[in-house]
């Protein structure tokens, strides 16, 4: 998840909705399938083994995620989840943890790094949707989010006179 502090105020002009609207789009959690504790543990086991500090639910975590307008969030080695969490949220945040661990795009400025890592994570989810049996609703959300981040990248390139 791209943090507010890591991005400019300027947002893509041609996007269907703004960055904040994209984040708020999933604020209604009805209609989503939430993971069991067992499945959650299975999916986060490797990250824990690699040093991730995983926090799920609880008053403080929920309140912090509310302030970030997020349902899940990775900050360095910490991964925060709401008590009710979807498959895509867990897969994406564990993937972001691995990106951080491997220093993916760490040579880029914070905004560009965030955009590139989001695009990479969204593509990972879409490429593995069948393998993990990600529900259609989550896959459609991911496609919409990917399109948004690709628009952000195009505008970033335009604003920084980068070709390609």
Attribute tags:
single chain; mainly alpha
Write up this protein.
It is a single chain. With 164 residues, this protein is mainly α. It has one domain (16-154). The protein contains seven helices and three strands; from the N terminus they run ααβαββαααα. The protein has a three-stranded mixed beta sheet with strand order 1-3-2, with helices on both faces. The radius of gyration is 15 Å and the shape is globular. Residues 2-21 have low confidence and may be disordered.
Number of strands: 3
Largest sheet: 3 strands, mixed
Tell the overall outline: globular
Q: What gap, in angstroms, lies between the N and C termini?
A: 24 Å
Run of helices and strands: HHEHEEHHHH
In helices, the fraction of residues equals 55-70%
Largest sheet: spatial strand order:
1-3-2
Percent of sequence in beta strands: 5-15%
Structural class, from helix and strand content? Answer: mainly alpha
Overall pLDDT: 87
What are the SSEs and their pairings?
Elements: H1 19-25, H2 37-49, E1 53-56, H3 59-67, E2 72-75, E3 78-81, H4 87-102, H5 110-127, H6 129-132, H7 136-159
Parallel strand pairs: 1-3
Antiparallel strand pairs: 2-3
Helix pairs in contact: 2-4, 4-5, 5-7
């Amino acid at each position: 998840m791209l943090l507010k502090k890591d991005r400019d105020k300027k947002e893509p002009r041609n996007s269907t909705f703004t960055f904040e609207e994209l984040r708020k789009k999933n604020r209604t959690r009805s209609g989503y399938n939430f993971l069991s504790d067992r499945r959650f543990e299975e999916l986060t086991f490797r990250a824990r083994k690699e040093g991730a500090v995983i926090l799920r639910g609880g008053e403080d975590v929920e309140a912090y995620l509310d302030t970030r307008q997020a349902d899940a969030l990775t900050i360095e080695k910490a991964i925060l989840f709401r008590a009710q969490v979807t498959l895509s949220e867990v897969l994406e945040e564990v993937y972001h943890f691995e990106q951080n661990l491997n220093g993916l795009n760490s040579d880029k400025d914070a905004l560009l790094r965030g955009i590139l890592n989001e695009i990479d994570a969204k593509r990972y989810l879409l490429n593995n949707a069948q393998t993990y049996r990600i529900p259609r609703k989550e896959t459609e959300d991911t496609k919409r989010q990917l399109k948004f981040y690709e628009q952000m990248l195009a505008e970033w390139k335009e604003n920084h006179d980068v070709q390609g």
